[in-house]
Q: What sequence folds into this?
């Protein structure tokens, strides 16, 4: 099955009403019931691993099978398993201090949670969001991206096979369906996607005062300190950038390199790509760009930089011609010190292009980062404790990985979310449980002494 009929606005609202009615008519899910609901999601991933990998490959034109397995099957499996193991503890009332009497916070489900996911790691986003919402005891409606129609149709079919419509439902369709979805009076809405769309989501949700968690991405900077293990740092940055061909919201967007080490960075990057991606065109591990529109966008960045005199270093070990390849592949490309006025330094890149910004002092780097919107992620490579503390204290980002990339986002014990223009709110682990719960304050007053 490669397509699903798009639902009308009336159908979508009807689904919400069914879920809300079922929520209000039932006792709150017990820990055992929540675990059973999560078990159903686990079974879907275990039993349909290859179906998910195949659907993603079809939607992307080509997608690394090992990346698809890791990102859209094994990673959400780990999330669901960990959430299941911990949710009973999360559900316990949390004692608080009171001057008199007994005080506690009681976590209760909100009701119906809406989840809107992006196209770049759709399996992960659907099941990760579902894990937190189900752990908190909610009914769930999901709107996956129309950019991955086969994957969205597959997820809709799988979820329909495992859940009643009043438990979990998937809504498919294009922008009009998405607009209708985000206009519903959910009890909470989680959106992952571009900042421009995030603004529209907030406007739609505001009509019903729906609380919203936004994960919007942004230009995540990487800093390679003079104290870093240089070759290891470069290798991690390059390989992190090339996962999913750079189409990740927490991909390293641009990298600060000591000015005297830029040539060395380029040399190591060439060696890393030659080792892990000796060919690109027919390499099963090198992922395509999602569609022609995004290929054209990335090519525009390169054309503008080239016309501005920026040195472009294409990392194409076999010198293959990718221009006429039908699979929308773009060679990894380094851009040496592009000007900040160029579009590649303004937009989130979401592709295998990596600008290199030379620097002299760490204060210069911090000032550059702070002069721009706060990013979703920041990466620091180095072993200078004082400098590391300076970066952590004087920059503000959604999250940080030290001496690595991406890893904080997949650590279930840490909150995941943005700050400022890279988003608001957080989920994953206990933070997801709390995002999708109402923390109700309860005070039992002390008895009056006669």
A:
């Amino acid at each position: 099955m490669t397509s699903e009929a798009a639902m009308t606005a009336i159908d979508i609202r009807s689904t919400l009403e069914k879920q809300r009615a079922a929520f209000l008519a039932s006792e709150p899910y017990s820990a055992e019931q929540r675990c059973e609901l999560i078990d159903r999601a686990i079974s879907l991933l275990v039993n349909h691993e290859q179906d998910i990998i195949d659907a993603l490959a079809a939607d992307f034109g080509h997608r690394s099978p090992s990346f698809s397995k890791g990102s859209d099957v094994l990673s959400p499996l780990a999330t669901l398993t960990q959430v299941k193991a911990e949710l009973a503890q999360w559900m316990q009332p949390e004692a608080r201090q009171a001057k008199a009497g007994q005080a506690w916070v009681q976590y209760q489900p909100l009701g119906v949670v809406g989840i809107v996911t992006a196209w770049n790691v759709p399996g992960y986003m659907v099941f990760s969001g579902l894990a937190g919402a189900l752990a908190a005891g909610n009914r769930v409606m999901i709107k996956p991206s129309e950019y991955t129609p086969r994957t969205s149709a597959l997820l809709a079919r799988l979820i329909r096979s495992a859940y009643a419509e009043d438990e979990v439902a998937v809504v498919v369709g294009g922008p009009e369906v998405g607009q209708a979805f985000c206009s519903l009076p959910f009890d909470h809405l989680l959106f992952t996607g571009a900042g421009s769309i995030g603004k529209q989501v907030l406007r739609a949700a505001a009509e019903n005062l729906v609380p919203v968690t936004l994960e919007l991405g942004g230009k995540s900077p990487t800093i390679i300190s003079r104290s870093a293990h240089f070759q290891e740092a470069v290798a991690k940055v390059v390989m992190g950038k090339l996962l999913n061909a750079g189409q990740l919201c927490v991909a390293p967007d641009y990298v600060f390199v000591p000015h005297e080490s830029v040539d060395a960075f380029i040399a190591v990057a060439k060696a890393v790509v030659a080792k892990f991606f000796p060919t690109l065109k027919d390499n099963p591990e090198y992922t395509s760009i999602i569609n022609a529109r995004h290929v054209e966008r990335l090519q525009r960045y390169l054309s503008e930089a080239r016309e501005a005199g920026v040195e472009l270093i294409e990392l194409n070990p076999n010198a293959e011609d990718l221009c006429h390849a039908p699979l929308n592949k773009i060679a990894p490309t380094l851009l040496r010190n592009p000007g900040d006025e160029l579009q590649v330094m303004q937009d989130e890149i979401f592709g295998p292009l990596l600008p290199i910004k030379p620097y002299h002092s760490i204060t210069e780097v911090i000032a550059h980062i702070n002069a721009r919107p706060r990013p979703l992620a920041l990466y620091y490579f180095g072993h200078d404790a004082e400098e590391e503390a300076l970066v952590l204290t004087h920059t503000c980002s959604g999250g940080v990985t030290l001496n690595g990339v991406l890893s904080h986002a997949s650590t279930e014990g840490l909150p995941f979310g943005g700050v400022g223009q890279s988003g608001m709110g957080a989920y994953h682990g206990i933070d997801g449980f709390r995002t999708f719960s109402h923390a109700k304050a309860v005070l039992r007053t002390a008895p009056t002494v006669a």
The CA atoms of residues 92 and 106 lie 7 Å apart. The chain has two domains: 9-216+422-444, 221-410. The chain has a mean pLDDT of 95.
